[in-house]
Specification:
Elements: H1 2-23, E1 46-49, E2 53-54, H2 61-76, E3 80-81, E4 90-106, E5 113-128, E6 134-147, H3 155-172
Parallel strand pairs: 1-3, 1-4, 2-4
Antiparallel strand pairs: 4-5, 5-6
Helix pairs in contact: 2-3
C-alpha cells in the first residue's frame, strides 16, 4: 500500500513539473515562449520596390541594391514583387547615402595599405499602402566588407558584396518586431 502511494505521489509531482515547465512555457499567459506565427506582417502580399537613389558619386550601385532587394524579397519572404505601384500592398523606397573606403591596416615594412574596408550606408522606408501605416521609417543599414589588393580583391568587388549584405539586412527589417 505504501508503495502505491509513493508511486502515485511521484507521478503527481512529475505531472505538475511537466505542466509548469513544458506546457506553460509555450502559451501566451504569464510566460513568454515560442510562437509559430509568421515573421512577416499579415495583410501584405505584394511589394513595389522603387529604384533606390544614390547620394554617392559612385554610380551604378543603386541598381545593384534595388535588384538584390527584389531577389531577397522573392526568396526570403512570402511577398511578391510587382512592377505596378497601383496594385501593390506596400512600397519600399530608400537611398544609398554613402559608399566609401577606409584603410584598416598597413604593411609593417613598407607602410603600404594592406587591408581596406568598403562601407555602404543605406536609409530606407517601408509603407503599407492599404492602411498608410509606415512600418519602417528612415531605418539606417550600415555594412562593411574587408578586402585586400594583395590577394587580388578590388574596391568594386567589395562594394558589390557590401551592397548585397545591405539588401539582406533591409529585408530582415521587413520582419515583425520581436516582443519581449
Amino acid at each position: 500500500m505504501k508503495t502505491q502511494k509513493l508511486v502515485f505521489s511521484g507521478f503527481l509531482i512529475f505531472t505538475v513539473i511537466f505542466a509548469v515547465f513544458f506546457v506553460g512555457g509555450c502559451g501566451k499567459g504569464g510566460f513568454s515562449g515560442y510562437n509559430n506565427s509568421s515573421l512577416h506582417p499579415r495583410g501584405i502580399s505584394t511589394v513595389y520596390v522603387e529604384m533606390f537613389d544614390s547620394l554617392s558619386f559612385r554610380r551604378g550601385h543603386e541598381y545593384d541594391l534595388t535588384d538584390a532587394i527584389c531577389k531577397r524579397i522573392e526568396s526570403d519572404t512570402p511577398y511578391k514583387i510587382v512592377s505596378d505601384r497601383n496594385i501593390a500592398d506596400s512600397i519600399l523606397s530608400g537611398k544609398i547615402t554613402s559608399i566609401g573606403r577606409r584603410q584598416i591596416s598597413y604593411e609593417r615594412n613598407t607602410g603600404r595599405v594592406f587591408e581596406n574596408q568598403a562601407n555602404v550606408l543605406v536609409v530606407f522606408r517601408w509603407q503599407n499602402l492599404k492602411t498608410n501605416e509606415i512600418m519602417v521609417d528612415n531605418e539606417t543599414v550600415d555594412t562593411a566588407i574587408d578586402y585586400s589588393q594583395f590577394v587580388g580583391q578590388e574596391f568594386e568587388y567589395a562594394a558589390k558584396v557590401a551592397v548585397n549584405r545591405a539588401a539582406e539586412r533591409i529585408v530582415e527589417h521587413m520582419q515583425v518586431k520581436w516582443q519581449e
